Structures are given as structure tokens and as C-alpha cells.
């Protein structure tokens, strides 16, 4: 709860955007997993801002330090702690907004909930926290790789422009994780325009989990799909999620039901989940991101004393949060799947005997 | 986990559609709450199928028996157990599908996950389980009423036809909880047509939480919105959720940000949640239901031995699950809010002193 | 939390001693376990009071009704709900103590904590609740039997008289679960004397878990021993617990350390637990019960209005709660072990591959 | 679970004795608490070994670094992360025991549970981990101080020699936290003798919680006493616990029941807990520590290949772990009480209205 996620594969994050460090403790990682530190760094690098003009120019230093849980390159079953120290803090960029609630940000709600707020950037509500999630996700992916389970994601819509084709391979090398090379061009134009206009754009991420065994997901309240929903909506700027065909609510039962043959399901409107349990098809979902709230145009707001003010932000920000959000969505999905794998191991007497006999 | 939901206000449900009973234990209910058993019955009645032609004709007997936790009309702080015995079981209706996986249902995944399945109806995956949720939600609502917090929901879209106006008052007396009297007519036509054609329809429920205090929701992984997402997607047939303006991903930051004045927010695109915390505006969300999987047309499938078969269902089913789903969505939202209220009480030293000094 | 115990094998109890029913939902039971209802009844029968003069004469009706989770004699992986309806309520026995706090009972603390109290008997704090635990323990034992894990317990001390020999087989047929036939005679005398004098006695239960695999228990805060401690001290009237040789704190390291040979440990002072993890030896512990608080001599107390009063109890009560407590201790231990077995399955990559490859 | 403790005030520790660092994330700390970093350091200093000859001479560097959750001297409601980097590692001291299971240690069980083990010192099972608990306890104590709740502990028995008087004030300045100045002399003699003989001693810690409000503790499975039991037995080397008069199991009901007058309870055999809930008297308990397993005499054991070996330890170790254990017991008790305070706030409608109306 609060700052933890997962039941067995369970991680807990900490840290503010402009504090000393952010980090994560990953508990419940099985012993005997080869720990791939290079992969950890490369995953953090995918999320890291400042790489190109499609992301915030604030240069975060995402060098992870693994403080525990790994011994001679292998996990030991004890908690893995990963810390990323903050270096490029530039607190002064934020001093003009010390007492002001930025529209679209969590300033207002943190202030009222806690009566105190780290006003330097987003504090705890900053997207910087998602680096800690990506670190957890990297460890989850190390586990999934051993079982050939793969998670892929990319951008399927930006600024209302929808991809026509879906190519997860293409996305891997796209600077904006675009799933469609045609749409990519229009998206880049739209992003450049938004940046010039000091504005920002919303977008949609599409995510796929491949090679999942049948049977993952715990009815009734820890289903594969409702926990994926929880995971995704917990990401900054995510406002919605859809599992499977995102038009399902417009269809009839006859259109939407996936018929079954000897060789498997004949369609995948359900997105690989039936009754909250994976059915062996690809798990597919879409994640809806609002536009970055940090824009550089005057906006009406109030300060902590109740005075009306005009907010004028400065600084460097993503014009589109969905792009980096794609990496975070992958990480969260990986953590959910790891957790579901572990839980499912305890759900059949047959499995229990397999281990203890 | 598994069959429990919530951290402090925490309920656990049990029961199969054609077993002896379904029920719920509600733990974490504070002592000293007037227990309104009539209200409990009326809430169950709103969800109950068989009331009119827009819902399944299977007559469920939803008479709740309160076995514990209430003494002389007041809650005592001990767990409240509510059981609903199954009476109208008609097991024979289902015998023809004993070894067959019905498309769109959880038969396939339960069988593969557990290696065994209560084949009489949906068993645990039946919508019948949602009666237990409505019972829990009724108790949550008893708490919320004392704080003037109100939860309302209704249908905003059926079969691709969208409401033009939203009137929560109207929905309360509509046989299909329609939020719009104009759309209601078209929806009823569409439902009647679907039933005649032995088909079913998807739909969208809109839900509003009024008078919520500022500050509910626990960052980072137990936010108000991601737990609402988890709650909603855990409901049978729900495939998606959206918090606030469901077009946010198509907007620019300038369009989407909600500016603030002395008198509050000037718009509510965020749906009353910023950074996962309630901001004092109405919390608003949409819930996307797939069409009822039980349709009465021949469908391709396989049996548990791997043989290809034609499925021909008989019986009585909702042509549109979203209608009754509206009541379940309210119940789940009420449980989430109660939980968030309790958690928030422990988040400020000021509150702690208020209780203990 | 509150009324639940366990992480994966997790049960939740409800019910008051003089309410309609008590019961338990057992969640996390794997599918494919033969459900032995006769065994469930026999376990409840062992705990049931009124069997002989060594236990309270209040005749409880402990007929369990299994409402869910079992289909055609097998567990299905869904929650198992077991309800025991209260029949022999005799509320009038308790009317004289409606407004009075009985010394040694929870009347005082429930009243102050909740501001309301079911004054008919102990309500929720009654030992009657332990029947629900025994039901959960019976299900846990069904799982353990499949792995040849056995849990035995008996009385090792009553009224300060200590057993000289320990014979778990003898205890099984002793009316007071005595571990020592010699001590049994003295204990029976002491119990008869206490009853005549309207007084009660404390005692100590000794418990053994046999055939446990090495490796159960999760460091650091969900160790086998600290969760056993939590389980035992949660039982009514238990005030203490000791794992292994209960003189360990008086020994030197040289005396207390258990040396190891090729054939296993050369002694078992540690009680089968090292670093919180089972080491393959018998797990052994002692559980310390205070004397039954219900005695039939005048005692000083106050009423809910703050007036000083003399309490004079009537009714039928155990002169020694440790005897039946022995059965409850077994049940709780069984639940802990089932939970630890399940958790341990997820702690090694080797196990994970065994299931998924 | 695993490496976390508590429900609302919840901490998670990480780190191995000879890894890079140990640390703790403390989640659930309310906002608006003055964070007393000096106090944190002083608490760690009380536990720190190497201070005098009664503790291990290994000099641990217990300088805590607060990485998050505190802003301008106040807690913000976000997770507080505290890291202590390991400096004085001296790995070579331990190389001779790389493949050997030290009797009384967790080497054997970690190896078998995980199939891998950080053989440098105790790794995760080292008492070094308790520094992280003391850090968490220091934060809990900061909260308790605001409510005048005080936790005190000291040594009441060493090597079988029992204190005759109990003086918590005296213990505060005793180098061995002795509760009795007379016994202290004998204990120091016994400790010196044990050290000379390369042996070690067990002991008993007595702990008191003062000024606790009535009503803390959540029946039935999260009682004040069973969670204290869990907390205490989770501490390295603790084998038992007793709440209240540790002779209760030898008494009769008449002797053991605490009668009540207008001015409170007339005795405190129950140790301040009735039915698992605090009754307003001092909460008192005893914690039983086995002797330090690290002794410097030859012992029989086996290595990881199954060969029988003679273990000859070198190095510097506590001859008596109970002394420093006293500080850890205080810390754990403080964390339990903070958690219980928060949970209790949600248990009465009256409290809920106090916050929200």
C-alpha cells in the first residue's frame, strides 16, 4: 500500500525529484537469478529524459547503485535495493512556484492532504519517481526472460492521430517508440509544433505481453486485468486503460466473443484475459495519457494563501509524457506478471507436490 | 488479495452461482454506525436480475442474512458477515455445457488454471458474485452518508449510442439506469432487438462521487484513481476505465489543464483527481463493459478433451450487463472511498493529535 | 489484518459467541485437494466444549456447513466458507453482567475501544471464535497430510505441575490431552479441586511439527518462528510462547548451539528453526496459557458508569483453558505451515522453472 | 511480508552485513512531524556495537543518511528512506567459514532455502540488520513522544541470574542496560567470564510501554500482544516472549485476574493487555534471548558438500546478544505501537466524524 506494489514480487519506492536520491527495494525476488546489471542500466536509459528533443531536456543522472540482494552476480533471495542519486537538481528553476499551485499538477492536492509540500519540482509526484519503477521492472523482466515471456510497448496515438499499423519491432528503434512509421512522421511534426507553442500533447500507449502461460490472474480481486489496470493508472498522467479491443463496449456479443478451435482462439478481442485469467493469447492493452501538465503559457491559479495568481512556468519539460510513459508501462506490466506467476504456483495441489515431493 | 478488496475497509467474498450460498465478510467497519438493514435490502434489489425485461429472467433470491458484527442495530467494530443463500438454482439448465468452454466466458481459463471447475453456470466467475459486492457497498454507503458523500451512476452509452445529456436524477428511476431520457428510448429499442436476435450489447457506465473531501488517495500505488481502476476492472465484463474527460489523451495541455480560482477549479477535465488525490471536485469516471458473453447463437468452441464443438446455449441472460453493472460500480466505488477515508485519517500529525489529545 | 490471518493461505473469521453464527472464509486453498468433511467434523469435535467434565458444560453445536469452494468432494481454488450456526445460546445466563466489566475478560477494553459491546458472553472475544480457527486448521491439515507433515500437541504443565515425560501418542487419547500419564493424574486432581473451589488453572501446551521440509520461513519479518509466535499469542488466554528449549536464555552458547553431523543435527535446542527458517528437525514450541478468567468467586470491578461493583459470575466454564487450547494451537500451527509452504515455492528460480517449463 | 513490518506504519529493511549498505524505507509516517535527526543518531548509537567490552568489538559505522521524506526538518508524508553504508567490512575475517555451516547460525538454513548464500558474516541474517529496525523505531518514537507515550527496556536476567529490583531509570545509564544495580555486578562478572572462556550467555529483556491510551490492538489476529510477539520473535536470537506476569500459567484465576476499582486496575498481571487490547495500564513484557551463537570453541558441523568438519571461529562478537537486543526490542515495540495507534483511529464512527466534520 502507499508506496508499495505487488503481493509476492513486491517493490517499494521512495524519493523526491529534488531530494538526495530516489530508489526502490524489490522484495520477493527468487534466489538464483542471474542479475544483469547492464540490462538494468539500459532499461533506465530508455526512460531517461534529455536523450533527444522529444523528451524533457532536464538531464537526469540515472546511474543505479545496487546496495543489496545480489552476491557474485546472482540474486540471493534477500531484498534488492537500488538507489539513484539525484545530481542535476537545479532547484532554482522552481523557486518561482514555491507557493503556487500549478494547474494540472499535484501541488494543490499534496498541499491540502499533507499540509506541507516539497515545492522543488513535483517532489514525490514528479515523473522522476518512475525511474524507480523502471528499475523494478528491469528485475521483473530478468525473471520473465528465463520463461521466454516478453513485454513490448509503443505509442499508438498522439494528439488525436491514430496509428494505422502496429509494429512493435519498429517501435524499439523509434526515438518516440512509435508503433507505426507513417504516423511517426505526423507525430513528430505535432510534437515539434506543440513545443514551439509552449503547449503539450496527450497520447495512447499500446502494450503486449507474449508467451504468457494460461492461468495467470487471481479471481476475484487480484485478476490479471484489474491489477494491470491498477498498475497503469498509478503511472503519472495516465487517465484510462482498456484491455483488448478498445471498441468492445460498442460491439455485440456475437462480434466480441472469441471463438475457440483446436489450435487456440480464433480472435483476441478479450486481450488475452477471460474471467481475469490469462488464456494463452497475447495480453493486449491500451493506456491513455493526458497531455503533460507543464506548459509554458500563462494560466490562472491560486497560491497557498488563497490569492488568485497567474502561473508562468519556466524550465524544460516533455511536450508528450506518453512517450517515456511507454517504458514505464512495460516496467509495471513486468512487475504484475512476475507477481501473478508466483501466486499461480500456489494454486494447484499438483504444483505443490511437484516442489515438495 | 485473491478474494479480498481494500486495506482498512476490507471485504472478502465467497460463493458460487450454483453452490449453497454466496456471501461477504466486511472487516474494518467502524463501531457505532447505525446499521440500515432496509437499505441493504434495497441496494441488493437494485442489482437483482429478473425485475424487468432488461435483465436476466433468472430469479435470484437476494435475501441477505446478517450473521455477525451488528448488535441492537449498531455496528460493533467486529466483522460483518452477510450471507445470501441460493434458492433458484435450476442446475439442469447448465448440464449441456458441462464439458464445454463457452466463448467469452471464464470456463476455459478456470479449467486450465485450477484443473477443476464448477460447471454449473459460471461458478465463481458468475455475475452472481457481484451481489456480495453490492452488500459490501451498501455498508460502505452507510458510512459515506454520515459524511454526506454520495455516489451516483448510470448508463451513458449502449450499443455505440451515446447519451447527449447527463442526468443522474433521471437514472435513479429509469428501468435501465439511463442517464439520458432521449437516449433511453433508443437504448431500449436496441436492447429489445438484441434480445430478439439472441444477441447482446456492450455499454458504458458513468459514475460520479460528490462531496468528497480534498486529500483522499495515497500516492504512489494506492492512489484514488488507480484503486478505482482496479475496483472497476475487477467487475465482470468490464474491459476499461477512464477518469475524468475521456478525451483527455486527444487534448493539448492548454485545453486539458483545469485552471483554479478562489472559488475552486474552473473545469474538471481531471475528474476530481490530481496526482492520485481528490481535489474537492466531483470524482467522475467512465466504465466500459463488453457485451454479455452468453448469447443464444451457435458458436465454435472446444471441449475439455480438445474436441471441436458447436456451443448452443439455452437459458435466461442479460442482453446487456452494463445496466446492472452500474449498481455494482457504485458499490465498488463506495468501498474504495470508505477505505481512502480511513487511510487518510492517519496521514497528518494534526489528525492524530485530534484523536489522542 | 483485523480478522484475517496468513498471506497466501489466508483465513478470515467472523461471529460472536451469542450471535447467529460464527464462521470462516479460507482463501488461498489450492485446487485439487480432496476435501475431507469427516475430518473437519472430527477436528471441531476435539475442540468442542461440553464433552467431559474437564471442559465447560456449555454445549456448543459445532456442526459445520460448507457453503462454497468445494465441488464434488474436491477443492476448486475458490474461497471455502464454513459456517457454524449458534444454537445453545442461553443469553439469559449473561444478563446480570450486561453493564459490568468482568475481571480478566475483554469487556473493559472492548467497551472503551468501540464504545459498544455485545454483552452476551464474550461476544467476539469469546473462546467460541476459536472453533472457526479449528475449521481453518482442519483444511490446512488436509494439505499437510498430502506432504506427510504432522502437527501434534498436548498439555505439558497444569497449575505449576510439569510433565516429566512427553508422549504425543498418549495425549491423543487423553481426555485432557495430557502428554504424560503420570502427570495426568495429578492434573485431573488439580482441575477437579479448582472446579470445586470455583477457581481455574493456567497451563502450558507443547506442540511439535514433524516432517517439515528444510527452508520454510521468510526472513526477516515473516519468519517461521515469529509468525508462529503471532499465531499462538492471538489465541485467547495465551500470554507467552517459547520456540525450542525453553531454558535457552539460561544456557551458554556452547550448551545451546546444536552441532551438526552428516546425519543431521545432534540436538534440537533451537526447536527446528534457525534464522527463522526450518532446519529439517522437529519444530517444537511451548505455549503459555493464563488461567480461565471466568471464576465463580466474588471479584471487585466497576460498571460502565464507573461505579464500583462486586462481580458474581454464574454459568459453566472451563476450569482450564489450556486443554482445549491445545487443539487451537495445532490448528493455528497448521495454517502457518501451509502459508509458509506456499511462500517458499516462490523463493527459488529453480522451483519457478519446475512449474513453468 | 518477507522484509516488511506493520500495516500502516510500515517499514521495509534491506542489506547484508558485508554488502554495500543496509537501510530502511519507512512508509506511512504522517506529515507534519518534526524530524529529529539527532535523536535518530543517538538511538543508533545505543545499539551500535564496539562501544564497550560488553558488546562486539567490530566497529560498525552507523551514520544514517536520510534520503527522502523529510523537507526543511519536517516529514512530508512520503516514504522516509534511511541508508547506513557499511565501512568496516573486514571480509577476510570470514573467509575460513565460506563453505561451512556455523552451529547456531542461519548458514545451514539459508543455504538450503535459497541454494546460495552471502557467506561473508551472517549476510542478511546478521544482527547488523537490526540497525535498520532501530532507525525505524527512532522515527516511531518521534511520533509517540508527541503523545507522551514512552517505551523503556533493560536486562532483567543474564546467564540464569535474575534481577531482584526493576529500575528503568538505572538501565538508561548502565553499560549493559541493567535494570538492577545489584544484579549488574554479577552479570558483568558472568559476561567477562564467558568472554574469557570464548563462550556466550543468554538473557532476558524486560520492556515497558507507558501512557498508552486504552483501546490499542485489533482483534482477532492483529492484537496488540500477538503483534508484539511477532515483532519480538523476529529479532535475531529471540526464542520466546511473555506478556505480563511471566508466571501467569502457574497461577489460579483468582490470583491472576486483575480486579478493577474506580482508579484503575488493582494489579497488572495481564501486562496491560486484555483481549488483545490495551487497558490503559503499562504494557509489560519479557523477551527471551538465546546465547550468541558465535563462540570461539571447536564445534562439530558439516560443510556444503556434506563433509563433517570442525568449526573454529575467529573474530569479535557479543558475548551476550540480549544487551543490544534491549534497544532493538524498544524499537520494534515503538513501531508496533505507532501502527496500532493509526489503526485504532479508524475504528469508531465518532473518530471519523471528528476528522471529517
Automatic annotation (TrEMBL), chains A, B, C, D:
<feature type="binding site">
    <location>
        <begin position="236"/>
        <end position="237"/>
    </location>
    <ligand>
        <name>FMN</name>
    </ligand>
</feature>
<dbReference type="InterPro" id="IPR035904">
    <property type="entry name" value="Chorismate_synth_AroC_sf"/>
</dbReference>
<feature type="binding site">
    <location>
        <begin position="290"/>
        <end position="294"/>
    </location>
    <ligand>
        <name>FMN</name>
    </ligand>
</feature>
<comment type="subunit">
    <text>Homotetramer.</text>
</comment>
<dbReference type="GO" id="GO:0005829">
    <property type="term" value="C:cytosol"/>
</dbReference>
<dbReference type="GO" id="GO:0004107">
    <property type="term" value="F:chorismate synthase activity"/>
</dbReference>
<dbReference type="GO" id="GO:0009073">
    <property type="term" value="P:aromatic amino acid family biosynthetic process"/>
</dbReference>
<dbReference type="Pfam" id="PF01264">
    <property type="entry name" value="Chorismate_synt"/>
</dbReference>
<keyword id="KW-0028">Amino-acid biosynthesis</keyword>
<keyword id="KW-0288">FMN</keyword>
<keyword id="KW-0285">Flavoprotein</keyword>
<dbReference type="InterPro" id="IPR000453">
    <property type="entry name" value="Chorismate_synth"/>
</dbReference>
<feature type="binding site">
    <location>
        <position position="53"/>
    </location>
    <ligand>
        <name>NADP(+)</name>
    </ligand>
</feature>
<comment type="pathway">
    <text>Metabolic intermediate biosynthesis; chorismate biosynthesis; chorismate from D-erythrose 4-phosphate and phosphoenolpyruvate: step 7/7.</text>
</comment>
<dbReference type="GO" id="GO:0009423">
    <property type="term" value="P:chorismate biosynthetic process"/>
</dbReference>
<feature type="binding site">
    <location>
        <begin position="124"/>
        <end position="126"/>
    </location>
    <ligand>
        <name>FMN</name>
    </ligand>
</feature>
<comment type="similarity">
    <text>Belongs to the chorismate synthase family.</text>
</comment>
<keyword id="KW-0274">FAD</keyword>
<keyword id="KW-0057">Aromatic amino acid biosynthesis</keyword>
<feature type="binding site">
    <location>
        <position position="316"/>
    </location>
    <ligand>
        <name>FMN</name>
    </ligand>
</feature>
<dbReference type="GO" id="GO:0008652">
    <property type="term" value="P:amino acid biosynthetic process"/>
</dbReference>
<dbReference type="InterPro" id="IPR020541">
    <property type="entry name" value="Chorismate_synthase_CS"/>
</dbReference>
<comment type="function">
    <text>This reaction introduces a second double bond into the aromatic ring system.</text>
</comment>
<keyword id="KW-0456">Lyase</keyword>
<protein>
    <recommendedName>
        <fullName>Chorismate synthase</fullName>
        <ecNumber>4.2.3.5</ecNumber>
    </recommendedName>
</protein>
<feature type="binding site">
    <location>
        <position position="275"/>
    </location>
    <ligand>
        <name>FMN</name>
    </ligand>
</feature>
<keyword id="KW-0521">NADP</keyword>
<dbReference type="GO" id="GO:0010181">
    <property type="term" value="F:FMN binding"/>
</dbReference>
<feature type="binding site">
    <location>
        <position position="47"/>
    </location>
    <ligand>
        <name>NADP(+)</name>
    </ligand>
</feature>
Amino acid at each position: 500500500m502507499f508506496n508499495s506494489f505487488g503481493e509476492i514480487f513486491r517493490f517499494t519506492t521512495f524519493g523526491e525529484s529534488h531530494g538526495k536520491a530516489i530508489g526502490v527495494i524489490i522484495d520477493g525476488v527468487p534466489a538464483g537469478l542471474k542479475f544483469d546489471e547492464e540490462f538494468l542500466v539500459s532499461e533506465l536509459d530508455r526512460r531517461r529524459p534529455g536523450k533527444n528533443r522529444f523528451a524533457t531536456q532536464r538531464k537526469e543522472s540515472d546511474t543505479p547503485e545496487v546496495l543489496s540482494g545480489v552476491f557474485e552476480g546472482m540474486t540471493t533471495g534477500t531484498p534488492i535495493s537500488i538507489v539513484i542519486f539525484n545530481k542535476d537538481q537545479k532547484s532554482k528553476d522552481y523557486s518561482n512556484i514555491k507557493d503556487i499551485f500549478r494547474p494540472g499538477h499535484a501541488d494543490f492536492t499534496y498541499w491540502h492532504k499533507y499540509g506541507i509540500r516539497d515545492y522543488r519540482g513535483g517532489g514525490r509526484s514528479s515523473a522522476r519517481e518512475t525511474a524507480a519503477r523502471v528499475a523494478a521492472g528491469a528485475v521483473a523482466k530478468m525473471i520473465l526472460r528465463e520463461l521466454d515471456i516478453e513485454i513490448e510497448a509503443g505509442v499508438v496515438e498522439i494528439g488525436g492521430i491514430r496509428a494505422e499499423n502496429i509494429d512493435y519491432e519498429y517501435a524499439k528503434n523509434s526515438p518516440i517508440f512509435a508503433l507505426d512509421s507513417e504516423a511517426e512522421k505526423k507525430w513528430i511534426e505535432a510534437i515539434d509544433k506543440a513545443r514551439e507553442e509552449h503547449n503539450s500533447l496527450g497520447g495512447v500507449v499500446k502494450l503486449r505481453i507474449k508467451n504468457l502461460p494460461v492461468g495467470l490472474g487471481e479471481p476475484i480481486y487480484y485478476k490479471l486485468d484489474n491489477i494491470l489496470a491498477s498498475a497503469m493508472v498509478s503511472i503519472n498522467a495516465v487517465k484510462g486503460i482498456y484491455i483488448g479491443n478498445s471498441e468492445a463496449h460498442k460491439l455485440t456479443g456475437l462480434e466480441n466473443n472469441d471463438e475457440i478451435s483446436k489450435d487456440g482462439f480464433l480472435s483476441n478481442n478479450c486481450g488475452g484475459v477471460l474471467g481475469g485469467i490469462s488464456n494463452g493469447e497475447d495480453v493486449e492493452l491500451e493506456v491513455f495519457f493526458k497531455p503533460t501538465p507543464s506548459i509554458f503559457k500563462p494560466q490562472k491559479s491560486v497560491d497557498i494563501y488563497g490569492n488568485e495568481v497567474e502561473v508562468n512556468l519556466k524550465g524544460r519539460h516533455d511536450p508528450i509524457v506518453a512517450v517515456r510513459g511507454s517504458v514505464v508501462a512495460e516496467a509495471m506490466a513486468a512487475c504484475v506478471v512476475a507477481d501473478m506467476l508466483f501466486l499461480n504456483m500456489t494454486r494447484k495441489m499438483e504444483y505443490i507436490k511437484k516442489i515438495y515431493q
